[in-house]
Design a protein that fits this description.
Layout lengths: L12 H4 L5 H7 L4 H25 L5 H25 L6 H15 L3 H13 L18 H8 L2 H15 L5 H6 L5 H24 L3 H23 L12 H4 L7 H6 L6 H6 L8 H8 L10 H16 L32
Helix pairs in contact: 3-4, 4-5, 4-6, 4-11, 8-10
Length: 348
């Protein structure tokens, strides 16, 4: 990967040519424990309400709908919080940030330090082919790739492989490149602890004593998880590779208050990549600050995902891939014909 850095630049606000006043940025980047603690309290309340509904629905025809809702309420914030705490911006108090980071990474399924360092790499070389270690699908995206990603098969396979490699000290060249050498033993320790916890969960379920874990963690994680992946896939799908401009490689999209709550305002994804030091609770203000210099957000969560799905279906059929609503890199639009792979996924 090192040889490829010769043509790449660090992707951020400076490489994009978007700057805001230093005093304003300092205000936006100011960290506090209160918003994060408030969010944890509201998330706990949402989990309690969804969990109560699931408990009542057990044994009825509504149980799978309740599992889905609980899974969404668990999966999307656990991903979003593990992401925010990986940046170290969710809380001002470091031990609080790291505790939430560890716990939400356990729920999400990826060793936290591996997540932190590969995500730092993702910000450093956003959507650069051969450099970005968090490209979850092949590009251009096809229906087969979309289905593999949204179903969760891709991420679960990736997470299992990473845990196994770290637990057995089979560090890949990428792991060694993006992670400080001193952190590798810590990553192995965490991976082994994660594996022990997951094996204990499997053992309890198999013995018949862990049925609450089955209904309140395992099944919701698989059934509600695709919504979390639908939030993720539209961050960069159909965007420009190998561009120093975050505006070219990244998408901001609209969503309602439920989506903003579940996803910690990360629908403001262009803004997050411009200034990753800005905490989740300040992203709406950052969005306003750069609105005149960034593209209009793509339509709502469902509209953006549906348009992306229609694009990848047509691409797989060899038809026109012009999107109806969402932004696309020019080379992603074709009248039809063969689909030539530009880059392979780095998270499989």
């Amino acid at each position: 990967m090192n040889a490829l850095t010769e043509f790449a630049v660090v992707t951020n606000a400076a490489s994009t040519g978007i700057r805001i006043d230093r005093a304003q940025l300092k205000s936006l980047a100011r960290r506090s424990d209160r918003p994060g603690l408030t969010y944890l309290a509201l998330w706990a309340l949402a989990l309690a309400l969804a969990g109560a509904a699931l408990w009542v629905a057990l044994g009825s025809a509504y149980v799978w709908a309740a599992v889905f809702v609980f899974g969404v309420v668990m999966s999307v914030p656990s991903y979003a919080l593990s992401h925010e705490t990986a940046h170290g911006t969710a809380f001002r108090t470091r031990w609080l940030n790291e505790t939430v980071f560890w716990f939400t990474s356990l729920l999400y399924g990826e060793e936290p330090l591996h997540r932190r360092y590969t995500h730092t790499n993702h910000h450093t070389y956003t959507w650069y082919v051969g450099l970005d270690s968090q490209m979850p699908f092949d590009t251009p995206l096809t229906f087969k790739g979309w289905l593999y990603d949204i179903s969760g098969l891709s991420i679960h396979r990736f997470q299992f492989r990473v845990l196994w490699q770290l637990a057995t000290k089979r560090y890949t060249p990428l792991m060694r490149e993006v992670s400080p050498e001193a952190e590798l033993p810590k990553m192995t320790r965490n991976a082994r602890l994660f594996c022990l916890i997951y094996l204990a969960v499997i053992g309890l379920i198999a013995s018949g004593y862990g049925w609450p874990l089955l209904w309140f963690y395992v099944l919701p994680r698989f059934i509600g998880g695709p919504i979390m992946l639908m939030f993720n896939i539209i961050q960069h799908a159909e965007m420009q590779e190998n561009s120093p401009s975050i505006v070219d490689s990244t998408r901001t999209f609209r969503t309602n208050w439920v989506g903003r709550f579940l996803y910690l305002n990360m629908n403001n994804h262009v803004e997050h990549h411009l200034y990753p030091q800005v905490p989740f609770y300040s992203l709406p203000r950052l969005h306003v600050a750069v609105a005149e210099r960034t593209p209009e957000p793509d339509p709502g969560f469902w509209a953006t995902n549906l348009d992306l799905l229609w694009v990848v279906i047509r691409r797989s059929l060899g038809r026109s891939t012009k999107a109806a609503w969402i932004r696309q890199a020019p080379h992603m639009v074709s009248a039809g014909g063969a689909c030539t792979t530009i880059s392979k996924a780095t998270m499989q």
